[in-house]
Amino acid sequence: MKIKDIINVLENTAPPALQEPYDNAGLITGNEQQHCSGVLCSLDATEAVVDEAIKRKCNLIVAHHPVVFKGLKRITGKTYVERTIIKAIKNDIAIYAIHTNLDNIITGVNGRMADRLGLINRTILLPKASTLKKLYTFVPIAQAENLRTALFHAGAGYIGNYSQCSFNSEGTGTFKGEAGTHPFAGATGELHFEKEVKIEVIFPAWIEQKLVQALKAAHPYEEAAYDVVQLENTHRHTGAGLTGLLPQPMKEMDFLAFLKEIFQLRLVRHTRLTGRAIQKIALCGGAGSFLISNALHANVDIFISADIKYHEFFDADSRMVIADIGHFESEQYTVDLLHDILLEKFPTFAVLKTAVNTNPVFYYA
Hints:
365 residues, alpha/beta, six-stranded mixed beta sheet, 12 helices, 15 strands
């Protein structure tokens, strides 16, 4: 098995197109064509994790956070980032990061947090824009069903919980094959009129290449006519943050105790309690203060995230509770998520979870 095979599974789960513009997800060191001896899943790629990969004979580290986030002008070993990169390259260890693209799917980092809390009726808190496109194509009536099937099989036609969605309208197409062509119908050099179906389907933007390939493979014409347009519609399962409901409401203090237990927290930084029960929850793994206004708009009882600044706590305005549980703590179960994704696809392969605690924050009490 090659490293590329592992990457393909990860990118089918969380397409790179879903990462934020500032991010650096993807293969950071290594050659994707290299044979993979084992995978080590981690939240961070540090020197200690590279040492662990060497010891456990894994030549691929799959980390949530990119070890190289900003551009490096020198690699001299003066920083932990430079030392990690040097050690990985010297020991032929590939490092792959799956960051905001894993944050931006409903079954990703936030989904795993919601699993731990037992949330139901989940929705994306801030849907990601420009994630849907529409394909228009034209095909002879007799071949329309076969082409629709090919488009659906390639991933088109999903709207919410509905699949195989399309719109079809009949009309007449014209074409004249010039010299050297072999028209599906009619004769070379003659204008031909063909009864056709115009098929319209919506699809996630990141499968465009795959969809067009499927269209061309299934279309009977030598030159398939099609249009692809960008939509303003949002994809209901992609975006930042997540909301969900507890099966039963809980008192605020009881919920904070539950939160502390589930995430194995030393403490919870939170705003003044509102005196209302907790049932509707918004959450975001990692730094999620940019979603406070969205959580307020969603009328949640509590927003759970990390890296909340002093003045940002005021934004709760007694309308909800803001709970900061720590960056590492909020994302700690991402290691299990990565492990489960890969193990489901490669049940007999060496997919391991790091034993290194990479949390750089300590508490003195």
